[in-house]
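Q: Sequence in, structure out?
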Amino acid sequence: MSGVLAGKVAIVTGVSRDGQVGQAVAQAFAAEGAALVVVARSRDQVEARAREVESAGAQVLPIAADLADEAQVRSMVEQAMERFGRIHVLVNLAGGLTRYKPATEHTLADWEYEIGINLKSAFLCAREVFPHMRAAGGGVIINFARAGLPQANMVAYNCAKAGVEALTRTLALEGRDAQIRVNAIAPGLVDTKANVEMMKPKDLSRWTRRGDIAAAAVFLASDASQGITGQVITVQGWGI
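A: Exactly. Output:
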């Protein structure tokens, strides 16, 4: 299969529900020739997304895993290496906003869960693939931050995404000598099916499109972005 990612193996996490960013990124990577390891907590959902990618002609390994669990992350990477023998790209997309309430109402469990799915998972996945990328002569890690200023009632999520930016820049420094490039994409409000169904907007023209995020991820994963590392790239549509 031809394309700018032909011959590359990419792990994409957070590939679960239909109409979400993970689905768009996986499909875009497949269209550009990548072999894929797609990961989500729900086995049914990740296998459904894998079938979509396979129908487009790509090689794909679906894995159900809780990426805030160290042992499950290690197993996921081991399975990827056993199947493909190489990991060129890691896309840390798993996570999301799940706790929306004032800071004083966040329980410790709320805090730990939100940090776990957004920041801890990205750290564990990156830490696990780093030695494999170093041994192979390089690689690419793409994290997901958020665009704009912090908003009220999202304290754990805001802190997690700020941590993702710090993680991105730290790993970029530590990966320079090993040719491991680490960047982050910071989307605005995205036109996922879940967001549209919940918010029922009358006009989507200013929302961030899933396809634009996927295109940015393809660019950062490709050799076209060889000179870019340690950056947070905002993909914000027309301002939301």
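Residues 143 and 184 are 4 Å apart (CA to CA).
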